[in-house]
What does this fold into?
Amino acid sequence: MAVEMHAGLASEGGSKLKMLLTFVDTLPNGSEKGIYYALDLGGTNFRVLRVQLGGQRSILETDVERQPIPQHLMTSTSEDLFDFIASSLKEFVEKEGDVSDTTLMRRRELGFTFSFPVKQTSVSTGILIKWTKGFGIEDTVGREVSECLEQAMARKGLNMRVAALVNDTVGTLALGHYHDPDTIAAVIIGTGTNACYLERTDAIIKCQGLLTTSGGMVVNMEWGNFWSSHLPRTSYDIELDADSPNPNDQGFEKMISGMYLGDIVRRVILRMSHEADIFGDALPKLSMPFILRTPLMAEMHEDDSPELTEVARILKDTLEIPDVPSKVRKLVVKVCDVVTRRAARLAAAGIVGILKKIGRDGSGGITGGRSRSDIKMKRTVVAIEGGLYTSYTMFREYLHEAMKEILGEEAAQHVTLMVTEDGSGVGAALLAATHSSDPVDNVQLL
Ligand code: BGC
It folds into this structure.
C-alpha cells in the first residue's frame, strides 16, 4: 500500500490508487459558529443534516434525516437523482420553522458529501471520475458535481451555496480532527471503502509547486481501487468482479466492503451446494446475485444460539432453503467467518500502510542508529466510520487483532481508531463553515 501511495503521488495515473487532491488544507479548529447544512450521498442511505456550531469546539445541535436512496435513481439520469436530493433538502429546510439565527439572514451554506471518486478543481467544485457501489448514471460522469446540485436546487427554488464538496472520508477526518487534533487519517468501511490522510504538499510530487498555507493537504486515496499482484484472488472474487457493473475496478473494495461480502458468501455456498449437494434440491434463490445482503450474513455469523436458529431462519426466509441440518448451518457460519476475517485483515493492512507512509507505524524509517524501542511514537488517531466497522462486532474484532499483529503490541498502543458518528455529514458541515464566504480563523494542519 505504501509503495502504491508513493506511485500515485508521483504522477497522474502512476498507480491504481488515484491519490486525489482535495484542496482541503485547513481543518475546522473549533471556533466555527452558526448554522450549516450538509447533504451526504454515497452509501445505502442518503442523509440531510443541519448542524449548529457554537464556537469553542461545541456542536450545539445536530438534526439528521436519513432515507434510503430509491434503487431506480441509482441508474437513472443526473437530473432525476439531483432533483430528488434537492427536494429532500428543501423539505428539510422548510421544516425548520422560524429560526432566528443571524446566519440565516444570509444565504445558507452547505457541505456536500459526495462519496465517489471526484477530481476536485477547488474545495467546493469537482468532476465525477466514475461511479462505484452500484450507482451508474452515465450522464453525470465528467460533469461538475456541485453545479449539478446547485442547478437542481435552483429548479426547486432553494437558495443555497455549496461551500465545500467533500468525500465521506474527508468529512470524517474533519470531525475527527475537530474533536481530537491528533487525528491524521480517516477510513470508511461501509457499503464501500476508502481512506484519506494528511500529506505534506512537498510529497505530492505530481503537483509540483502546490502551495498551501499549512504546508499540507488532505489526500483522498480512493483505496477501494487498490490492487497488488501480491493479493491472492479466489475464483469467487474473479466471478463477482466479472458479473459486476464495473469489472476490473475497485478490486480492494470488492474484497472488503459491505456491498460485496454477503455476495461472496452466497457464491461460496452456492458452489458447495453444487459440488457437495449440501442443501438438496434446486435452489433458485441462492443463484440470485446480491440476494444475501451483508447485514444478514453478519447476523448468521454472530448467531450464538446453540442450535443456530438465526442461521436456519435466514436460510429459510431469504434463500428459501428449509430444514438445513445443524452440521451444514455450522459450515455456513464458517464461510461467513472466513470471508469477514479476510476483509477485516485486508482493511487493517491498508490502515497500517498509511501509517507506514507517514512514519507513524513505529518502524521509525531511517533511524540514524537508534533502535526501534528508543523512538518515541506519536499518538496517532484514525477516525473511522461505516456500518461494517460500527455494527459488525466480529469484523471489528478481526480488524483490531490484525492491526496489533502487524504493528506489534507496543506500537499498536499508540494508535487509536476513533468512531465518529455521522462524521461524513457533520464533518462536511464543519468544512462548509471553515470555507464559508463568511470565514472564521482557520487552523494550520501540519
Ligand atoms: C468510493 C469512495 C468512498 C467509499 C466509501 C467508494 O466506493 O469510491 O469515494 O469514499 O466508497 O463510501
User: Anything to note?
Assistant: Residues 42-43, 115-117, 132-133, 167-169, 188, 190, 192-194, 222, 224, 253 surround beta-D-glucopyranose (CB under 6 Å). DSSP finds 14 helices and 13 strands in the chain.
